[in-house]
């Protein structure tokens, strides 16, 4: 049985996805750090991170219905 990693396109897809996911997590951590450094407020930090999650929460059911 051939390994999926034997295909160049599959390796390119997974390496690109890994880099994309890693950069998103780095951006998330950096944003939280910058907000806290500038304001010093945990409340504002929570508000910014909560506002960042709103599109994910609202669009997840819609995208799931579209996929089905």
Give structural notes.
The chain has 68 residues and is an all-alpha fold. The protein is built from two helices and no strands. The protein has helices at residues 8-39, 42-67. It is flat, with a radius of gyration of 18 Å.
Gist of the model:
Helices cover about 85% and strands about 0% of the residues. The chain is mainly alpha-helical and about 70 residues long.
Helix content: over 70%
Q: In whole angstroms, how far apart are the ends?
A: 31 Å
The total count of helices amounts to 2
Which spans have pLDDT < 50 for at least 5 consecutive residues? Answer: none
Mean pLDDT: 91
Please describe the topology of this protein.
Blueprint: H1 8-39, H2 42-67
Give a quick set of tags describing it.
68 residues, mainly alpha, 0% strand
